[in-house]
Design a protein that fits this description.
Helix content is about 10%, strand content about 30%. It has about 300 residues and is mostly beta strands.
Length: about 300
């Protein structure tokens, strides 16, 4: 099938699964795609899912019955455009043009708006004749001389307070994160307590984020993790021999690995999966967790403080 990148609009050919993740070789954007829009094959009449997807646009795909190439109705979006699919049809283009005209008119009106020191226009003869007209007691009043105003009056500077307020300096930026010691490879088990369980009990973790992660499996009610392992960005690892029990899965992302403390130094963000992973005796349990928002997933993620993650 052919996939349209939602960021740079490059079209790439993809074989295999009809849904999943794909990293654009042009702009390096990692996005998901899935066949969702129904399209009927003109050769055999079979109804197939071709266009659509949560983030990307499927440009073409093969018919599931006869293998005929089906193309979805789409247009190539120029790089840098703000929408994934662009404007289609006369009504959409007319709406976009009307919005552009309104923005230009608003900017011109804002630039022509008078400033705070603009003088009001003088009225023709009304105010001057009123100052020289006789009053009710038949006495004449002399006109009041007006003070000359400068052409461009300069506003007086604001008065300084008697007790100046100290303005706090901005925080000093943190130094660049530098790894201390060797960084673990993908799937390295850093902690295993209580001995291994049955080999059929596994946990597969897919790290689709843009940074490495450390994953901990903490038994419910315990204060220490039974398993802790390292997962690099964009990779997947499977841990076997998970002991029987119910576990809460914690994870943390960060930069600058500290081999002595077995954690990240800075840019740390931690979370936990709301659903408990259960491994019961007599059953071979194969769990799967994805450290990335999944369309149609069956569990949510709760953000936790990194210090909470470190105490296990």
């Amino acid at each position: 099938m052919e996939i349209l990148c939602p960021q740079c609009a490059s079209v790439w050919r993809r074989s295999g699964s009809r849904s999943g993740t794909f990293r654009c070789p042009s702009c390096r954007l990692l996005f998901r795609y899935a066949l969702s829009n129904p399209t009927r094959c003109s050769h055999c009449g079979n109804l197939n899912n071709v266009g659509g997807g949560p983030n990307a646009r499927i440009v073409s795909a093969a018919c599931g019955q006869c293998g005929q190439t089906l193309r979805a109705a789409t247009r190539r979006v120029p790089p840098g455009f703000g929408f994934a699919y662009g404007f289609k049809g006369r009504r959409a283009r007319g709406f976009a043009l009307a919005c552009l005209v309104l923005v230009v008119v608003g900017l011109i009106g804002f630039s022509l708006r008078p400033g705070p020191h603009a003088h009001p226009p003088l009225e023709s003869g009304g105010s001057q004749s009123a100052s020289t007209s006789p009053t009710q007691d038949d006495t004449l009043t002399s006109p009041t001389p007006t003070e000359a105003r400068p052409a461009n009056p300069t506003p007086a500077p604001p008065a300084l307070p008697s007790n100046p307020v100290e303005v706090p300096l901005p925080p000093t930026p943190s130094p660049t994160c530098v790894a201390s010691g060797s960084v673990p490879s993908n799937g390295t088990v850093l902690v295993r307590r209580g001995g291994p369980g049955p080999g059929d009990n596994t946990l597969t973790v897919q790290n689709d984020s843009t940074s490495d992660a450390l994953v901990k499996m903490v038994p419910v009610g315990a204060e220490q993790a039974a398993l802790a392992f390292y997962v690099t960005q964009g990779a997947s690892t499977t841990i076997s021999g998970v002991p029987y029990g119910d576990y809460t899965i914690f994870f943390i992302h960060g930069e600058g690995w500290d081999a002595g403390q077995r954690t990240f130094i800075c840019a740390r963000s931690a979370g936990q999966l709301d659903q408990t992973a259960s491994y019961s005796p007599g059953y071979a349990t194969r769990g799967t967790a994805t450290l990335f928002p999944v369309f149609g997933g069956n569990t949510n993620v709760t953000t936790v403080d990194p210090s909470t993650f470190d105490k296990y």
